[in-house]
Design goal:
This protein is α/β, with parallel strands linked by helices. The protein has a single domain, classed as Rossmann fold. Helix content is 43%, strand content 13%. The chain has a three-stranded parallel β-sheet with strand order 3-4-5. It has a two-stranded antiparallel ribbon with strand order 1-2. Strands 6-7 form a two-stranded antiparallel ribbon. Helix 3 runs parallel beside helix 5. The longest helix is centred in the middle third of the chain and has 18 residues. It is globular, with a radius of gyration of 20 Å.
Length: 221
């Protein structure tokens, strides 16, 4: 689903709309320019670059200078533009509390910190929507709590819509406004977390409850 929304896959049917525009045929870079960022379940950082450089890459589509005007660094305004974008990157670094690793090579960091760097790069796009693919995977409890706090702040402080795929039900229940359940690519139900978790179809699909137990649940409800 996230690959279809971000443009890596083309859907077999139907269409995808973003901000009242049909974006089904748009390339991923065009969707990024519209304000759509994402992270990946399998990290997609530039492992040989520093944390700072990885985040700066996320500002690339916002640059006005190009290969013609860029070399005229002080004349074309490239220097001023670079400083402006660098200030934004530093604010993101402060927000995600990764100042202490800003010059570290991304490939040498722990898994949890690399997840945070990837989120920082997605934020650098100046997105209206961020797609998070299992942001808690492989994290310990403390790292999950930190990531959950950042996700909440993205929505509440930065006014960014967050679409998250996550299999940690505790996280889903704690921070989600709305939950949608897919079963083999088909939508089962969407609604408030409590409603979704108590739905018989969801229990059968995800908790392994058999049909007899499902009938008992339905009769009881």
């Amino acid at each position: 689903m996230l690959n279809c929304i971000s443009g890596r896959y083309q859907p077999n049917c139907g269409k995808i709309s973003f901000q009242q525009q049909d974006i089904t045929a748009l390339q991923p870079n065009d969707r990024a320019s519209m304000g759509m960022g994402r992270t990946f379940q399998n990290l997609a950082l530039f492992g040989h670059l520093s944390v700072l450089d990885n985040i700066v890459v996320g500002r690339h589509h916002l640059l006005n200078n190009n290969w013609l005007t860029g070399p005229l660094y002080w004349i074309s305004g490239a220097q001023e533009e670079e400083l402006k974008h660098r200030r934004v990157v530093e604010e993101i670094i402060d927000f995600l509390e990764i100042s202490h690793i800003r010059k570290s090579i991304a490939g040498t960091l722990s898994y949890g910190l690399r997840k945070r760097v990837e989120l920082a790069r997605a934020m650098a796009l100046n997105p209206k929507l961020i797609l998070l693919d299992e942001p808690m995977a492989g994290m310990n409890l403390e790292e999950k709590e930190d990531m959950a706090r950042y996700i909440l702040d993205l929505n509440e402080e930065f006014d960014i819509t967050v679409v998250m795929i996550e299999h940690d039900m505790g996280v889903v229940m704690d921070i989600s406004h709305q939950v949608m359940v897919l079963d083999f690519g088909k939508k089962l139900i969407s609604g408030l977390p409590e409603e979704v978790m108590n739905d018989p179809q969801v229990k059968r699909a995800y908790l392994g409850i058999d049909d007899d137990e499902l009938d008992d649940i339905q009769e009881a409800s």
